[in-house]
Amino acid sequence: MMISTRGRYALRVMLDLAEHKDAEYVPMKEVAQRQELSLKYMERIMPALVKGGLVEGVHGKGGGYRLVGDPKECTVGDVLRLTEGDLAPIACLTHGAVPCSRAGQCKTLPMWTKLYGMINEFFNGITLNDLL
User: Fold this and answer.
1) Would you give per-residue pLDDT tens digits along the chain (132 residues)?
2) Are 67 and 75 a contacting pair, CB within 8 Å?
């Protein structure tokens, strides 16, 4: 499993919003400048974070984005699953995957299942607040 630019940038945006959580709404232009990220790329990431309920946005003058919840409650796992999708290390463990006909005799499946659990446990155990 490799975390893409999308997931890494989403974490940087979320951390920036967490650092500025006392502001009403933070313009993405400011976040892009502080984080040295492409504004156009960020605009492609934000809808997933809004749809997932982690941030809310307001358009127009005085608009921008802000965190919906407390940085102590938002985990890295929450952010990565919204931007990366399932964090499964192999296709047969992804949510909604067609059951593998070899699962019953697959000697490596327990190892991959354990790794999947470890990945989720690790990322679910780190909050935005921990990273700040």
Assistant:
1) 689 999 999 999 999 999 998 888 999 999 999 999 999 999 999 999 999 999 999 988 888 999 999 999 999 999 999 999 889 998 899 888 888 888 889 999 999 999 999 999 999 999 999 999
2) no
Describe the chain by its helix, strand, coil percentages, rounded to 5: 50, 10, 40
Q: Count CB neighbours of 54 within 10 A.
A: 23
CB 123 within 8 A of CB 76: yes
Looking at domain 5-131, its CATH class is mainly alpha
Residue entry with tokens 């699962």: 103
Report yes or no: 56 and 50 within 8 Å, Cβ to Cβ. Answer: yes
Distance in angstroms (rounded) separating the CA atoms of residues 123 and 82: 13
Structural domain spans, the chain: 5-131
